[in-house]
Design brief:
3% helix; 5-stranded antiparallel sheet; Rho GDP-dissociation inhibitor activity; GTPase activation; 5-stranded mixed sheet; RhoGDI_dom_sf; Ig_E-set; single chain
Length: 152
Protein backbone atom coordinates (compact mmCIF):
# COMPACT_ATOMS: atom_id res chain seq x y z
CA UNK A 1 0.00 0.00 0.00
CA UNK A 2 1.31 3.42 -0.95
CA UNK A 3 1.98 5.90 1.84
CA UNK A 4 0.18 9.01 0.58
CA UNK A 5 1.44 12.57 0.65
CA UNK A 6 5.16 11.87 1.01
CA UNK A 7 6.04 12.14 -2.71
CA UNK A 8 3.98 14.24 -5.14
CA UNK A 9 4.78 14.48 -8.84
CA UNK A 10 4.98 17.81 -10.70
CA UNK A 11 6.16 17.20 -14.28
CA UNK A 12 7.22 14.67 -16.88
CA UNK A 13 9.57 15.35 -19.79
CA UNK A 14 11.03 13.12 -22.47
CA UNK A 15 14.35 14.60 -23.63
CA UNK A 16 15.95 13.62 -26.93
CA UNK A 17 19.54 14.02 -28.12
CA UNK A 18 18.20 14.82 -31.60
CA UNK A 19 14.58 15.20 -32.67
CA UNK A 20 12.80 17.26 -35.32
CA UNK A 21 10.30 19.58 -33.68
CA UNK A 22 12.28 20.11 -30.46
CA UNK A 23 14.45 18.21 -28.04
CA UNK A 24 11.96 18.20 -25.15
CA UNK A 25 8.49 16.72 -25.02
CA UNK A 26 6.47 17.82 -21.96
CA UNK A 27 3.59 15.57 -20.97
CA UNK A 28 0.83 17.05 -18.79
CA UNK A 29 0.25 15.26 -15.49
CA UNK A 30 -1.99 15.79 -12.49
CA UNK A 31 0.24 17.89 -10.25
CA UNK A 32 0.36 16.68 -6.66
CA UNK A 33 -0.49 13.05 -7.36
CA UNK A 34 1.68 10.23 -6.07
CA UNK A 35 0.20 7.74 -8.57
CA UNK A 36 0.65 8.87 -12.17
CA UNK A 37 -0.41 6.65 -15.07
CA UNK A 38 0.32 8.02 -18.56
CA UNK A 39 0.10 4.64 -20.30
CA UNK A 40 -2.98 5.71 -22.26
CA UNK A 41 -1.00 8.64 -23.76
CA UNK A 42 2.18 7.12 -25.24
CA UNK A 43 4.81 9.29 -26.88
CA UNK A 44 6.80 8.22 -29.93
CA UNK A 45 10.50 7.58 -30.46
CA UNK A 46 12.43 6.87 -33.66
CA UNK A 47 14.39 3.62 -33.50
CA UNK A 48 18.06 4.31 -32.78
CA UNK A 49 17.43 7.69 -31.16
CA UNK A 50 18.84 8.60 -27.75
CA UNK A 51 16.46 9.76 -25.04
CA UNK A 52 15.98 10.13 -21.29
CA UNK A 53 13.08 11.04 -19.04
CA UNK A 54 12.94 13.65 -16.30
CA UNK A 55 10.31 13.50 -13.57
CA UNK A 56 9.83 16.48 -11.27
CA UNK A 57 8.57 15.78 -7.77
CA UNK A 58 8.39 17.11 -4.23
CA UNK A 59 8.70 15.48 -0.81
CA UNK A 60 6.60 16.52 2.19
CA UNK A 61 8.51 14.40 4.73
CA UNK A 62 12.11 13.20 5.01
CA UNK A 63 12.83 10.02 3.05
CA UNK A 64 15.71 7.68 3.79
CA UNK A 65 17.28 5.50 1.11
CA UNK A 66 14.90 6.46 -1.71
CA UNK A 67 15.18 4.09 -4.67
CA UNK A 68 13.25 3.71 -7.90
CA UNK A 69 12.55 0.23 -9.21
CA UNK A 70 12.01 0.41 -12.97
CA UNK A 71 10.17 -2.37 -14.80
CA UNK A 72 10.04 -2.34 -18.61
CA UNK A 73 7.34 -4.19 -20.53
CA UNK A 74 7.13 -4.75 -24.28
CA UNK A 75 3.58 -5.44 -25.38
CA UNK A 76 2.67 -6.45 -21.79
CA UNK A 77 5.57 -8.93 -21.52
CA UNK A 78 8.34 -8.25 -18.96
CA UNK A 79 11.35 -6.96 -20.90
CA UNK A 80 13.81 -5.61 -18.31
CA UNK A 81 14.37 -4.33 -14.77
CA UNK A 82 16.59 -1.72 -13.23
CA UNK A 83 16.99 -0.09 -9.82
CA UNK A 84 18.26 3.45 -9.45
CA UNK A 85 19.29 4.77 -6.04
CA UNK A 86 18.22 8.34 -5.30
CA UNK A 87 19.38 8.63 -1.67
CA UNK A 88 18.13 10.57 1.33
CA UNK A 89 15.64 13.41 0.80
CA UNK A 90 14.93 16.31 3.18
CA UNK A 91 11.39 17.22 4.22
CA UNK A 92 9.48 19.96 2.39
CA UNK A 93 11.69 19.84 -0.70
CA UNK A 94 9.82 21.15 -3.74
CA UNK A 95 12.20 21.09 -6.70
CA UNK A 96 13.46 17.52 -6.97
CA UNK A 97 14.11 15.75 -10.26
CA UNK A 98 14.53 12.10 -11.13
CA UNK A 99 16.41 11.40 -14.38
CA UNK A 100 16.33 8.03 -16.09
CA UNK A 101 18.89 7.01 -16.93
CA UNK A 102 20.84 8.90 -14.30
CA UNK A 103 23.89 9.19 -16.58
CA UNK A 104 23.99 9.09 -20.36
CA UNK A 105 21.11 8.15 -22.64
CA UNK A 106 18.78 5.26 -23.36
CA UNK A 107 18.72 4.17 -27.00
CA UNK A 108 15.63 2.89 -28.76
CA UNK A 109 16.38 -0.27 -30.72
CA UNK A 110 16.66 -0.13 -34.51
CA UNK A 111 15.74 -3.79 -35.03
CA UNK A 112 12.36 -4.25 -36.67
CA UNK A 113 11.50 -6.97 -34.15
CA UNK A 114 11.91 -4.38 -31.35
CA UNK A 115 9.59 -1.77 -32.86
CA UNK A 116 6.29 -1.25 -31.09
CA UNK A 117 4.83 -0.47 -27.70
CA UNK A 118 6.73 -0.25 -24.41
CA UNK A 119 5.50 0.52 -20.90
CA UNK A 120 7.70 1.68 -18.04
CA UNK A 121 6.50 1.19 -14.47
CA UNK A 122 8.47 3.05 -11.81
CA UNK A 123 8.03 2.22 -8.14
CA UNK A 124 9.49 4.73 -5.68
CA UNK A 125 10.39 3.14 -2.33
CA UNK A 126 12.10 4.45 0.79
CA UNK A 127 11.99 4.60 4.58
CA UNK A 128 12.69 0.88 4.92
CA UNK A 129 11.32 -0.31 1.54
CA UNK A 130 7.97 1.43 2.06
CA UNK A 131 5.94 2.06 -1.14
CA UNK A 132 5.86 5.84 -1.62
CA UNK A 133 4.73 6.50 -5.21
CA UNK A 134 4.27 5.02 -8.68
CA UNK A 135 4.83 6.58 -12.10
CA UNK A 136 3.84 4.70 -15.28
CA UNK A 137 4.32 5.83 -18.88
CA UNK A 138 4.37 4.31 -22.36
CA UNK A 139 6.07 4.97 -25.66
CA UNK A 140 6.13 3.57 -29.18
CA UNK A 141 9.30 2.89 -31.17
CA UNK A 142 8.88 3.63 -34.90
CA UNK A 143 11.32 3.12 -37.80
CA UNK A 144 11.57 6.82 -38.72
CA UNK A 145 10.70 10.29 -37.41
CA UNK A 146 7.85 10.66 -39.89
CA UNK A 147 6.03 7.85 -38.10
CA UNK A 148 7.41 8.78 -34.66
CA UNK A 149 6.37 12.43 -34.31
CA UNK A 150 3.19 12.92 -32.31
CA UNK A 151 0.02 14.07 -34.01
CA UNK A 152 -1.24 17.28 -32.40
Amino acid sequence: MINHNIISFKKFEAIFEQRPGGLELNMPIEIGSNNVDLTSKPFNIKGGSHYKVKIGYMASEPITDLICQIHTFRKSTPYGRDTQKVGDICANTNDLEFDFPKFGWEQASTQSSSMGDYTIKMYFKGNGNQDLATFFYSFNVAPDWENALPIN
